């Protein structure tokens, strides 16, 4: 599927433009069927975007927010993506949005994934909006090179839902939506910042195995066009 690159002079410019785009998409979904859904990435990159989006005029009480992936840690852990969303997106006008976490208190990460899949089924897929990030190794969501369940995660025939992922350098075990859950969002965005990430993107767009740079699965096989938002 073709991708479109949108370049901005600064992260602040990107955050404002992306917030406007996402707000329009969510509002259109609400107008069409009364609800809207968005799955967002973690890490430090989306903070300014989250803050900008939280100020947009949307019927937030009709919006459901979830994460594309999460560490197997409670919401009060500083490494939790849930904490990031609480502090930066579920603020201002977006306080009334519904948030569905991926982390579930459970004896194992596998049980947490099962519980999270049950909870996510209430949202309804395809999502209206999916925002992905990308690591310097070419991972996205928690699709890590060498990950324990990578082949299953990237297989389009794997049922929609959440599975586990463990990989060297990933830290805690992860919970991640499958590729099949993310690839057909009405708006599918890859949000990256920095010259280094642009170099990684260029490499991912070249030849090579998806297992070596899992972002290639999104760029090559997503059934929705990928909107790439980049700023230095």
Strand order of the largest sheet: 1-10-9-6-2-3-5
Give the averaged pLDDT, no decimals. Answer: 97
Strand content: 15-25%
In sequence order, what are the helices and strands, one letter per element? EHEHEEHEHEHEEHEHHE
Distance between the termini: 25 Å
List the uncertain runs: none
Helix content bin: 25-40%
Largest sheet: 7 strands, parallel
Number of E strands: 10
Spatial shape: globular
Any key phrases for this structure?
alpha/beta, 33% helix, seven-stranded parallel beta sheet
Structural commentary:
The protein has 232 residues and is of the alpha/beta class. It is built from eight helices and ten strands. The chain has helices spanning 11-33, 47-53, 81-88, 109-120, 150-154, 179-182, 195-204, 215-221, and strands at 3-7, 36-40, 63-67, 69-71, 98-100, 129-132, 162-165, 174-177, 187-193, 226-231. The strands form two sheets. A seven-stranded parallel sheet has the order 1-10-9-6-2-3-5, with helices on both faces. It has a three-stranded antiparallel sheet with strand order 4-8-7. The longest helix has 23 residues, at 11-33. It is globular. The relative contact order is 0.18. The model has no long low-confidence stretch (mean pLDDT 97).
């Amino acid at each position: 599927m073709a991708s479109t690159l949108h370049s901005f002079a600064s992260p602040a410019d990107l955050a404002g433009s992306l917030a406007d785009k996402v707000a329009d998409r969510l509002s259109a979904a609400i107008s069409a069927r009364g609800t809207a859904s968005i799955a967002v990435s973690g890490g430090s990159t989306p903070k300014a975007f989250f803050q900008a989006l939280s100020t947009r005029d949307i019927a937030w009480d009709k919006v459901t927010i979830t994460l594309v992936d999460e560490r197997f840690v409670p919401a009060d852990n500083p490494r939790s993506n849930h904490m990031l969303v609480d502090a930066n997106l579920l603020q201002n006008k977006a306080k009334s949005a519904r948030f569905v976490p991926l982390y579930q208190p459970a004896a194992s990460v596998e049980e947490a994934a099962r519980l999270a899949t049950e909870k996510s089924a209430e949202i309804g897929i395809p999502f209206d909006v999916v925002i992905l990030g990308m690591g310097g190794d070419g991972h996205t969501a928690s699709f890590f090179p060498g990950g324990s369940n990578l082949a299953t995660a990237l297989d389009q025939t794997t049922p929609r839902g959440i599975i586990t992922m463990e990989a060297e350098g990933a830290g805690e075990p992860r919970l991640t939506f499958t590729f099949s859950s993310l690839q057909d969002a009405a708006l599918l965005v890859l949000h990256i910042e920095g010259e280094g990430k642009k170099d990684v993107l260029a490499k991912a767009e070249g030849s090579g195995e998806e297992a070596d740079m899992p972002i290639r699965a999104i760029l090559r096989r997503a059934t929705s066009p990928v909107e790439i938002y980049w700023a230095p």
